[in-house]
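Kindly inspect this today.
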Amino acid sequence: MRTLKAIIALLFVLAGILIGALNQQVVDINLIFMHYQAHLGLVLLLCMLAGAVLGGALASAGLLLRG
């Protein structure tokens, strides 16, 4: 079981490296009071991480409130 978790974690790390390496374009992020420039790969990875965290939080809240 520990080996399977390590392999899955390694696959996620490799996918992150691949996404970052293939998306080197610089994008502008304009928020209301802030302006950022970042690589597209980094922006994609941060958006996926934010989605996973929010989805996990909503799923956890749903389980806690239902019980």
Summary: The two ends are 29 Å apart (CA to CA). The chain has a mean pLDDT of 90. DSSP finds two helices and two strands in the chain.
